[in-house]
Design brief:
- The chain has 256 residues and is mostly beta strands.
- Helices cover 11% and strands 49% of the residues.
- It is built from 2 helices and 15 strands.
- Strand 7 and strand 8 form a beta hairpin.
- The protein is globular and about 45 Å long.
- The termini are far apart.
Length: 256
């Protein structure tokens, strides 16, 4: 029988600062359609902290990630059975929780990449130190358009990639253009236009990126207050403090 594909479902990323509020660490969860997926609370078992993927339906993940709306990162045609199998295999490969390696962000990032076939938009610094991005094509002309819960976005790009070595995370993107309108949670209008960009970060502590961009927009999105005009500007919030120019920028520690 032919392999029947699901109608495209929106993929969202939800985040929350760890409690007590941490200046550098976030918990991540992924929503597919109406269902949230996340690494559950850690419970010791024979000296181990097994990774368990928990699910719930609703506007917010069980952990509280996505409380302020989350953000649209892509779309997927993966079926529920394919998702079940992928989650099962991920736990088999990553059975035990590790705060700096096999953690919630590693799960969410790898899940997002697989769900969207590497056609996603996510510009956050990452705490996980060994994200698997093998067999992901860098050069790929693709994009998506989606709208959900007051967040509408359309994006197009020529290529993007991510690699991690220990605490260092390296990202690159080429020919990325997106337009976004936010009407709650948050508000504003944004056009992100990047010719080329390469960046490196030390977990979620600090990062630097260089390239060429003309990002323009103002408002509140993804937990940050931000304003840019032709590449000049900055933001402050869940992603820390960031200062940008048309040829690069720096950022450090979360402050919310």
């Amino acid at each position: 029988m032919p392999n029947r594909r699901m109608p495209k479902r929106t993929v969202k990323l939800g985040r929350k600062l760890l409690a007590p509020p941490s200046p550098i660490a976030h918990h991540w969860a992924i929503q597919v359609g109406d269902t949230w997926f996340e690494i559950g609370p850690k419970q010791k078992s024979e000296g181990r902290s097994p990774n368990v993927i928990e699910r719930n339906n609703g506007d917010v993940a069980e952990s509280g990630a996505g409380k302020f709306g989350g953000e649209v990162v892509g779309k997927t045609t993966k079926t529920d059975s394919e998702i079940d199998y992928w989650c099962q295999r991920w736990v088999e490969i990553n059975p035990d929780y590790n705060f700096i390696k096999d953690n919630c962000q590693k799960f969410a990032y790898e899940f997002m990449i697989w769900l969207t076939d590497n056609n996603y938009k996510c510009d956050h610094r990452v705490d996980a130190g060994n994200i698997d991005t093998e067999n992901r094509e860098f050069w790929a002309v693709d994009g998506f358009a989606a709208a959900k819960d007051g967040n509408a976005i359309a994006t197009f790009g020529l290529g993007q990639g991510h690699a991690s070595v220990g605490p260092a995370n390296i990202k690159a993107k080429v020919g990325q253009v997106s337009a976004q309108a936010v009407a709650g949670p948050g508000f504003g209008a944004f056009v992100d236009a990047t010719v080329v960009e390469a960046g490196i970060s030390a977990g979620n502590v600090a990062g630097i990126h260089v390239g060429l961009n003309a990002n323009t927009g103002a408002g509140v999105r993804n937990g940050n207050v931000e304003a840019h005009l032709l590449g000049f500007g900055g933001k402050i919030g869940a992603d820390g403090i960031e200062i940008n120019t048309p040829i690069g920028g720096v950022n450090a520690c979360s402050v919310m």
